[in-house]
Amino acid sequence: MLDVSLTREILRLAVPSLGALLAEPIFLLVDAAIVGHLGTAQLAGVGIASTVLATLVGLSVFLAYGTTAAVARALGAGDLGRGLSAGIAGLYLAAGIGVALIVLGLPLAHPVLAAFGAGPDETAYATTFLRWSLLGLPGMLVVLAATGVLRGLQDTRTPLLVAVAGAVVNVALNLLFVLGLGWGVAGSAIGTALTQTAMGAVLVTVVATSSRPHGTSLRPDLGHIRGAGRAGVPLLLRTLTLRLAIIATAVVAARLGVAALAAHQVVMALFNLLALALDALAIAAQALTGKALGEGDGPRVRALTRTLLWWGVGAGLVLTAIFVAGHGLAGSLFTDDPAVRAAIAAGVLVLAVGQPLAGWVFVLDGVLIGAGDGPYLAWAGLLNLVVYLPAVIAVAVWAPDGPAGLAWLWAAFVVAFLGSRSVTLGLRYRRDTWMVLGAARA
């Protein structure tokens, strides 16, 4: 049975989190929509550069996850000053990583983008967009870290408000710079970089204001920053295994023919969209689990997890029903090519069936992140990848081209990858090893 009071707590955090999670896709969609008016080569170039940016930001999500767990546990233990010190260190770490990426990225931008094999015009536009966008990375990563601090404080509304305001400002700046001043793809990148920097500044101000009553120093502490970096390594490895699985899936899709590859891009975009809904529950799981463990309340952690799993699987079932009903129509929204439409329908049907399993996986992943169980998640991620790679290689070798091949590919992703994650996370959940109670995890 669902606990009504726990459900209210979950929704209080999850609903605003979902809105904030939509901010980055909205930024990219706005960039694409405005740049699309400049020409096909410009749009293609921005698409390539956005792939690189999304990878860099995706790998840095540990900045949010790590600070959420640390601050939430300290909040529950009644030692918020210590948690905020860890959060401040995370902000400095984020800014440092962002600056390092600028230093490395500016000279490497063209060689990396040229490796995609696009034409010279597309590569030139991609290089321009990426180089200007890199200047916004410190702000972008600080947004991640500051959002993690606020989630740990059980505040998901402030990141939502900042994200909505940022999306509005981003539209205005991009319209001005690209279409008004005629700066082209550089204008789009500059507008987004300025917006991300401003968002980072606002969130840092909020965190600093929250820290003052607790006497938390805002000065950089190298020891704390190194500690935040060490704590983030396991979560970085966990995220890297996820990205490698997605890359492997795309590589195999490319071997199944042009229609299957085009359809795969659509199905993967839908998967990312569905993941946002389930990720909102995972964020609530991180914040609430960390706080309850800090309070030393093991039974509450178990009750929270059970309620979250109900919501995760239930949300997955709702998504399954929606996408099973509409899988045959999904392709018509993206293409007129019958072969691509058929492949999209096949892939979406398999994706839809896997959503309850995805709900289970996302929730348990969030619970263990909130518990600070990063080392286990890193090792489990490597094991999941070891299980998945033979399955995806088998698809590449034996699956037919076209819709059937794409269906087999997504079946491998759901059964072998999500299935493996459900087993490794479920086995961990059944034990009490991850439930370290008190102010700090050893």
UniProtKB/TrEMBL annotation:
<keyword id="KW-0812">Transmembrane</keyword>
<keyword id="KW-1133">Transmembrane helix</keyword>
<dbReference type="InterPro" id="IPR048279">
    <property type="entry name" value="MdtK-like"/>
</dbReference>
<feature type="transmembrane region" description="Helical">
    <location>
        <begin position="189"/>
        <end position="209"/>
    </location>
</feature>
<feature type="transmembrane region" description="Helical">
    <location>
        <begin position="86"/>
        <end position="109"/>
    </location>
</feature>
<feature type="transmembrane region" description="Helical">
    <location>
        <begin position="342"/>
        <end position="364"/>
    </location>
</feature>
<feature type="transmembrane region" description="Helical">
    <location>
        <begin position="405"/>
        <end position="427"/>
    </location>
</feature>
<keyword id="KW-0813">Transport</keyword>
<feature type="transmembrane region" description="Helical">
    <location>
        <begin position="129"/>
        <end position="153"/>
    </location>
</feature>
<feature type="transmembrane region" description="Helical">
    <location>
        <begin position="240"/>
        <end position="263"/>
    </location>
</feature>
<dbReference type="InterPro" id="IPR044644">
    <property type="entry name" value="DinF-like"/>
</dbReference>
<feature type="transmembrane region" description="Helical">
    <location>
        <begin position="41"/>
        <end position="65"/>
    </location>
</feature>
<dbReference type="Pfam" id="PF01554">
    <property type="entry name" value="MatE"/>
</dbReference>
<keyword id="KW-0472">Membrane</keyword>
<dbReference type="InterPro" id="IPR002528">
    <property type="entry name" value="MATE_fam"/>
</dbReference>
<feature type="transmembrane region" description="Helical">
    <location>
        <begin position="12"/>
        <end position="35"/>
    </location>
</feature>
<protein>
    <submittedName>
        <fullName>MATE family efflux transporter</fullName>
    </submittedName>
</protein>
<feature type="transmembrane region" description="Helical">
    <location>
        <begin position="269"/>
        <end position="288"/>
    </location>
</feature>
<keyword id="KW-1003">Cell membrane</keyword>
<dbReference type="GO" id="GO:0015297">
    <property type="term" value="F:antiporter activity"/>
</dbReference>
<dbReference type="GO" id="GO:0042910">
    <property type="term" value="F:xenobiotic transmembrane transporter activity"/>
</dbReference>
<feature type="transmembrane region" description="Helical">
    <location>
        <begin position="376"/>
        <end position="399"/>
    </location>
</feature>
<comment type="similarity">
    <text>Belongs to the multi antimicrobial extrusion (MATE) (TC 2.A.66.1) family.</text>
</comment>
<feature type="transmembrane region" description="Helical">
    <location>
        <begin position="160"/>
        <end position="183"/>
    </location>
</feature>
<feature type="transmembrane region" description="Helical">
    <location>
        <begin position="308"/>
        <end position="330"/>
    </location>
</feature>
<dbReference type="GO" id="GO:0005886">
    <property type="term" value="C:plasma membrane"/>
</dbReference>
